[in-house]
Amino acid sequence: MKRRCVLMLVAVLSLTPLAGAAVEPLQFSDPAQEARYLNLITGLRCLVCQNQSIAESDAPLAADLRHEIHKMIQNGASDREVVDFLVARYGDFILFRPPFKPKTYLLWFGPLILLILGLAVFIRVMRRRTGEPAPELTDDERQRLGRLFSSINEEKRP
Amino acid sequence: MRRYLIPLVVFAVLVLVLAVGLNLDPSLVPSPLIGKPAPEFTLPRVKDTDKTLSRSDLLGKVALFNVWASWCTACREEHPVFMELARTNRVPIYGLNYKDQLDDARRWLTDLGDPYVATGFDSKGRVGIEWGVYGVPETFVLDRNGVIRYKRIGAVTRRILQEEILPLITQLEGEQE
């Protein structure tokens, strides 16, 4: 019983990206196709309202693209084909997850590189602070130091 | 003194990167169609729906392809620029009427003037999707072979025409077939 409840909860929560979905009854007779459709439209950016997916966006272009994807899936296109179709016309920006390719290496590796650089600087600074030993005093300087200490001690005596 | 050099250089580089980045418009989406052939399409013409406008009509010369709609205020702003350009006969301008009503489109051309050789009526915006249109106005420059060489998102101003589009047209005309 408990396991079923948990599964139900997970299933319902997995639909939360659609909580803001624009009202639109695009039907699929095949639930597998519908699942693919929902997965695709939540992973594609609306180019008009660029912080929303085309599932959520009310923009006319988003509606057009939803219809287009719906049609493509019904005509037998694979997920890959739908994505390629859109990327060919709108570019990588339409994908919410940036692809991993030479053009986006800086995007993917950038934070890691900055972290390593930051750590390197940090280590260097820390070493500099604790590492330097006190320089050796010459005889002259040691005598001066001795005289300074005794004069301080004399001042301290009441 | 030298210990300040590295942070200073890093800071200078950061300032440079931010100065460039903050001056860019992140909402502009660069077109992946630059350098690719213009998409195939056939649409009825706005002024005479018995006739069609297709990709093949755009071939054979350097041409402009302007996406517009009667409901689009920025299109109204750039319209005089295209009228002036059309009067010079410098380059043929073709139109794509995007997600509009036929009557509204016709009235727009009658009232404001028609700078286009022909305008295709794309009421559903399906051809627009083929061109990667996501807002109006958008303007494409095609070379003689129908390859998209330039895309302008937003209104074409006189300055953009002078500084970017006209020099490009001249350059494309000088290219071999």
Secondary structure blueprint with pairings:
The complex is a heterodimer of chains A (158) and B (177).
Chain A: H1 2-13, H2 31-42, H3 60-74, H4 79-90, H5 105-131, H6 139-156
Helix pairs in contact in A: 2-3
Chain B: H1 5-22, E1 42-44, E2 52-54, E3 63-68, H2 73-88, E4 93-98, H3 102-112, E5 118-122, H4 126-130, E6 138-142, E7 148-153, H5 158-173
Parallel strand pairs in B: 3-4, 4-5
Antiparallel strand pairs in B: 1-2, 3-6, 6-7
Give a quick set of tags describing it.
A: elongated, B: 177 residues, alpha/beta, two-stranded antiparallel ribbon, 5 helices, elongated
Can you give a write-up of this model?
The complex is a heterodimer of chains A (158) and B (177). Chain A has 158 residues and is mainly α. Helices cover 61% and strands 0% of the residues of chain A. Chain A has 6 helices and no strands. In chain A, α2 (31-42) packs antiparallel against α3 (60-74). Chain A is elongated. Chain A starts with a helix and ends with a helix. The relative contact order of chain A is 0.07. Chain B is α/β, with parallel strands linked by helices and 177 residues long. Chain B contains 5 helices and 7 strands, in the order αβββαβαβαββα. In chain B, the strands form 2 sheets. Chain B has a 5-stranded mixed β-sheet with strand order 5-4-3-6-7. Chain B has a two-stranded antiparallel ribbon with strand order 1-2. The longest helix of chain B has 18 residues, at 5-22. Chain B is elongated and about 80 Å long. In chain B, 34% of the residues are buried. The mean pLDDT of chain B is 94.
